[in-house]
Amino acid sequence: MMAVGSVDIAKIAVRMALSTREEEHELKAKYQENGIRVAAVDFGGDFSSSIQKIVERTCVAAKREGIVTDTHVGEGAVAGAVRDALMEVSLKASGFNVGGKVGLARYGEHLTVCAFFGIGLLNLNEVVIGLGHRSVGKEY
């Protein structure tokens, strides 16, 4: 396998966030063959009051899928990266209902979280995407 860097992992996290549930399972199998661990979490609801729930569900998915270990460092890296991604989308999403997905990808020391949401505003829908990245030691 060729060298995989932070840009490659970011692209994979975006693909996971954009995937349907069926595609999610296919992508997970494909990336796992190359040692890349991925996960995705669906979400919908009021953005502002749900930030904590999104962070928690993303951390749970990351541990469940073996993206990070159940340690302070591993969980903190995911929480920080998803918080960064959410802050990138917060200007457009704050005060509105959102629906979408958070995608995660990890290879070696590279961990990326992508938040992709559609923002409901009457019959006009806005779309927003945010990324967060962390470098995490391979032991975490």
Give a brief outline of the structure.
With 140 residues, the protein is an alpha+beta fold. The protein has helices at 6-18, 21-33, 47-64, 72-93, and strands spanning 37-46, 97-107, 110-121, 124-135.
Features:
alpha+beta; 4-stranded antiparallel β-sheet; 140 residues; Hut operon positive regulatory protein HutP; 47% helix
Q: How would you explain this protein's 3D organization?
A:
One of its GO terms (molecular function) is RNA binding. Homohexamer. Keywords: Activator, RNA-binding, Transcription, Transcription regulation. Strand 2 and strand 3 form a beta hairpin. The radius of gyration is 14 Å and the shape is globular. It is of the alpha+beta class and 140 residues long. It starts with 5 loop residues before the first helix and ends in a 5-residue tail after the last strand. The chain has helices at residues 6-18, 21-33, 47-64, 72-93, and strands at 37-46, 97-107, 110-121, 124-135. The protein has one domain: Hut operon positive regulatory protein HutP, CATH 3.40.1510.10. Helix 3 runs antiparallel to helix 4 (72-93). It has a 4-stranded antiparallel sheet with strand order 1-2-3-4, sandwiched between helices. The protein has 4 helices and 4 strands. The mean pLDDT is 95. 47% of the residues lie in helices and 32% in strands.
